[in-house]
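As a next step, the fold was encoded as tokens, giving this record:
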Amino acid sequence: MTDPVVKGLAVYVVGGAVRDALLGLPAGDRDWVVVGATPEQMSRRGFIPVGGDFPVFLHPETKEEYALARTERKSGRGYKGFTFYTGADVSLEDDLQRRDLTVNAIAQAPDGGLVDPLNGQADISRKVLRHVGQAFVEDPVRLLRLARFAARFHDFSIAPETLTLARQLVSEGEVDALVPERVWREVAKGLLTDQPGRMFEVLTDTGALPRVLPGLCFQASVAQELACAAQAGLGLPARFALLCRLSGTPQAIGQHVRAPGDCQDYARLLPLVLDQITASRVCVAGAGSADQAEDAGAEACLDLMERCDALRKPERFLDLIDAAACVRDVNTQIWRERVSAIRSIDAGAIAKTMQGNPQGIKQALRAARLQVLHRSD
């Protein structure tokens, strides 16, 4: 059944939805390009305008994005330094020509036919990420997207000439015009891929890493830890913490790119968790007797949980333990049992027995927590 809202318009699905379908991947959000229409025509059909720099509209029912076909011309520095033209004479091929990579420059008509003037299908078959044209060097976001797609499609190679242009974006200073929020948007997407480390390998290889994430220390071991986190299904905050863990000031990196607060918290706490786990093992190993070792272990565990606010934020703490397990040999199940044990204590009942003695309540609670930790171990 023909959609009456778009009937008579030349509309095409473009970009990621077409690429992913050709790769046999699950369908995601669809983006549409409209050829030969004006903003006034779109509004009369009920489309909702949402574009800033150029006309983008939301379908009144599906809320999918429909953008007018456009061309762009470099008019200034950085990724915002462009002038856009969206006249009704802009062809579909003109619009595809301005895109970043050939695999993202394929359009699909409503009848299923593909429009592929830049041979993106061939590059998909060859598993190659290749730039569309020399305009690649005009937009530094394309370097970030290249690195992110390299992480998502980790079995794809990057065309040598595309790497050359990516390095040119760095050497000519275009990459320095990226604002932190834009960097974070791409970094967050890259971290949520199956092989996040490859994004940062590409940024390192092109020389962009110290420019877009100053202070970040990235090594091969971090790439392995990120792959472990992806396999374990850990969320963005835990992956970001692993990315930053070798850096001298991990929280500062999060602040620089305006990362969400939970990501910054995880980045701050993961080194503490790793250090405390190591220190507790040393402490237990140095104890004189089995009883002393048990006491030392319970004390160290409780100290760590209190410092990480595990009572109020158990999910966060256990996320950190799971992240630590990608770095050290950690028995995550025991830590789950420990958290469950200390949270099972009825603090209210203890407080009732010691009314008017706040210090006594605190000491009794700690003693009760240590006691259940002895049992859980």
